[in-house]
Design brief:
The protein is α/β, with parallel strands linked by helices. It has two domains: about 180 residues, FAD/NAD(P)-binding domain (3-Layer(bba) Sandwich), CATH 3.50.50; about 150 residues, D-Amino Acid Oxidase, Chain A, domain 2, CATH 3.30.9.10. The protein is built from ten helices and 20 strands. Strands 1, 5, 6, 7, 8, 14, 15, 16, 17 and 18 form a ten-stranded mixed beta sheet that branches. Strand 15 and strand 16 form a beta hairpin. Helix 3 crosses helix 4. The two termini are about 25 Å apart. Pfam families: DAO (PF01266).
């Protein structure tokens, strides 16, 4: 699948990372991870730290799938509001999912510190703006649900928003527990760290075309005819994971993103907080380390790459108009733009763990707008499953 198009900012900013060899012989390992994006890298991190030998195989150049198209906003909010998720799966489970997402942000901050890498991780505040009266009512309900369960948030009224952020909206939810990163940079740093420290083997341009299940594990066959024997396999090739399943568990969508030329520090809104809206279609906004504005949204159901790409110019125009309506005094010029494909589930939660029809396999798919926070959660769960430890699987199980 063509997961993205256009000119993703992260690839230009960082340059292509070191490519890895293509597998040209048979090999064995404890765990085979399919996919070298941020999910595969984090799974490898947690397993390697536990002393498990891993091999990563990717049909592309390492880390150049959906990871390069990520806007890398780390928020504990799930695509489905907490008060809505409560109605779908129940109060206890919904609150737990939100708290796990919150904890994952601090987990990522901790492991970045432990590895001595940066990934341009930075804690940020976050504003969820009411786009109209209906949105304001939604945020009031959401505020009550979050406060009841001890989640960090404040409700800002029209006067407070104007005074603090110079934003003319009726209402907003605010928290100071969000973050931003450079996902591509972080991903490549993790792979290199464990390649040197843990003996992690990463193979680029190595497509897995079949998986044969054995009594004591699996044998994966590559397109070039080489085999990889492993006790377990982790399916983490982004939104292409679903190709390994017989059932359809998520809907694909496309999102459109543009990045401005650098602007003066004094030009930015207060705190350079993350911003998103209650409106549908909505936009989301963040800054970058070199003082650019990244703004995206106006998501579309994904049908095929050509249709997605034809909409790019029109979507960019919509995105800029919405941004200037919110910040009429901030003038930006587009420097980069792209669109990417992501998966969405009915309840906004991913599918993580085992599937009854696929022995010796762990899945991590269906991330929506919370790709990185859910990747952290998936990596921890998969590590614990492999080690035979008790872990949270019910929330994210197939067939739930």
């Amino acid at each position: 699948m063509d997961l993205k198009s256009g000119l993703p900012f992260w690839l230009i900013k960082n340059g292509l990372a070191k490519d890895y060899d293509t597998l040209d012989e048979n090999t064995e390992t404890e765990v085979l991870i399919i996919g070298s994006g941020i999910t595969g890298a984090l799974v490898a991190h947690f397993l390697c730290e536990a002393g498990v030998k891993c091999v990563i195989a990717d049909k592309r150049m390492a880390s150049t799938g959906s990871t390069t198209a990520s806007t890398a906003q780390l928020q504990y909010e799930i695509d489905v509001y907490l008060h809505e998720l409560i109605e779908i799966i129940g109060e206890e489970k919904a609150a737990k999912a939100y708290k796990m997402c919150l904890e994952s942000i601090f987990t990522l901050q901790k492991i970045i510190g432990q590895m001595g890498i940066d990934g341009e991780f930075e804690m940020k505040s976050c504003l969820n703006l009411a786009s109209d009266k209906t949105g304001a009512n939604t945020l009031r309900r959401e505020y009550k649900a979050r406060k009841k369960h001890g989640l960090p948030c404040e409700l800002l009224d029209k006067k407070q928003l104007k005074e603090k952020f110079n934003i003319d909206r009726e209402l907003a939810l605010y928290n100071d527990c969000s973050a931003i990163i450079d996902t591509f940079k972080l991903c490549t740093q993790i792979l290199e760290y464990h390649k040197k420290k843990s003996g992690l083997k990463v193979y680029s341009h190595t497509e897995i075309v079949s998986i044969e299940h054995k009594r004591n594990g699996i044998v994966a066959l590559t397109q070039k005819g080489n085999s990889i024997k492993a006790k377990k396999v982790v399916a983490a090739p982004g939104y292409e994971s679903e190709n390994l399943l017989d059932e359809k568990v998520m809907r694909l969508h496309s999102t459109y993103v543009l990045v401005s030329k650098p602007i003066k520090e004094a030009t930015f809104w207060n705190e350079k907080c993350l911003i998103w809206e209650t409106a549908r279609p909505y936009i989301y906004i963040r800054s970058t380390a070199d003082n650019r504005v990244m703004v995206g949204g106006f998501d579309e159901p994904f049908y095929d790459p050509k249709r997605r790409d034809k909409l790019m110019a029109r979507k960019n125009s919509y995105i800029l108009k919405r941004f200037h309506k919110l910040f009429p005094d901030i003038q930006i010029e587009t420097d980069f733009y792209w669109c990417g494909t992501f998966g969405e589930t009915k309840d906004g939660l991913p599918f993580i763990g085992e599937h009854e029809n696929h022995p010796n396999m762990y899945f991590a798919l269906g991330y929506g707008g919370n790709g990185i926070t859910f990747s952290v959660i998936a990596a921890e769960i998969i590590r614990d499953l492999y080690l035979g430890k008790k872990t949270e699987t019910e929330l994210f199980a197939f067939g739930r």
